[in-house]
Amino acid sequence: QQYTYELGDAFITNVKNSRKLLKTSVVLVSGASDLQETLDEKKYVIRDTVLFILRDLTEEDISSETIQDKLRAELPDALNKALGISSIDSVYFGDFVMQ
User: Fold this and answer.
1) Is the pLDDT of residue 33 over 90?
2) Nearest-CA neighbor of 16 among 57, 60, 77?
3) Which of 10, 20, 30, 79 could cross-link to 25 by cystine, CB 3.0-4.6 Å?
């Protein structure tokens, strides 16, 4: 079974070397049912880690057809490392807009 954890507010960040902004919402996916408390306590670490990765994206990166797949691989690894766990399997995106 898969469990989801919504991070709440959307992420809005500058696009690297651009005047544009990226707005996205992220939902974490895990097979572990006991992560809720850990994720609640470390939400600031999660948001910081996600923003650090998103801030490094260029317009070209964001326009790529494979960017969401790339981030689905990159974000769980970075989050697991930052949180000292191995339970985050994937992420879902609610919006993914550059403006």
Assistant:
1) no
2) 57
3) 10
Give me the phi and psi of 14, to 5 degrees please.
Answer: -65, 145
Contact residues for 57 (Cβ-Cβ < 8 A; gap 6+)? 15, 16, 22, 67
What is the rounded distance in angstroms from the CA atom of residue 65 to the CA atom of residue 96? Answer: 12
pLDDT digits (tens, 9 = 90+) for 36-94: 899 999 999 999 999 999 999 999 999 999 999 999 999 999 999 999 999 999 999 99
Q: With 90 as the cut, is the pLDDT of residue 3 above it? A: yes
Supply the DSSP string of 18-73, one letter for each residue: SS-EEEEEEEEEES-TT-HHHHHHTHHHHHHHHHHHHTT-BHHHHHSTTHHHHHHH
Does an H or E element contain 91, and which?
strand 88-98
Calpha distance 77→73 (Å, rounded): 7
